[in-house]
Amino acid sequence: QSESVAEAHSRYYLGLVLAQQEKLNGQEAVEAIETIRDDLANVRQAWVWAALNEHLDLLVNCYPVLAAFFEYVGLLMEGELLFERTATLLSGLTEPPARRARALLVLRQYQFALDRGQTQGFQALLEPLAAEIESLQDETLTAELNFIQAYSHHLTGQFDLAIDLYRQAVETFERQRRKRKLIDLYNWLGEVHSRIHRLEEAEAESWR
Fold this sequence. Notes:
Elements: H1 2-18, H2 21-24, H3 29-38, H4 40-52, H5 56-73, H6 76-90, H7 96-115, H8 122-136, H9 139-155, H10 159-176, H11 179-206
Helix pairs in contact: 1-4, 1-5, 5-7, 6-7, 7-8, 7-9, 8-9, 9-10, 10-11
């Protein structure tokens, strides 16, 4: 009975998180953030129970919303550590759905790390994950990997590589109609082009 109560608790609070998805992407973002913040202790407990009990559906459905919440409120380290620990809990599972869930969580963990400026040695860190994603042959995972690789190149000034990988990710996310992801990608593509333009102007000025 206690197990069924724990599951009900987990499904309720992670369902509460999932219900904020549209609001977070729209004009009611502040309300959605406050809703999650008010029950954050319960949300954390619900997430840990789902991870310990391998409820992949709850984790995969909720992780983008929870990640967006951590991003909005500046809890980057908490998001990174939570997803890292969850991925570790799933590391012993060998079925494709569990491997896919783990890859999604690790990719988002790495995005939090990049958001915090952790770029040193990052491409080497990605290599084992890239091999795992290639073996899964999953279009969404490949696009998410392209996005993370592009973001890393973007932050380290390798703009040509970043643009190519961002564009590859855009093609997939446009097919999937991933509105939130596309907004981020278009913003970062615009920033990369602006930085290239400024560098070109600075170089031209130096030759005058």
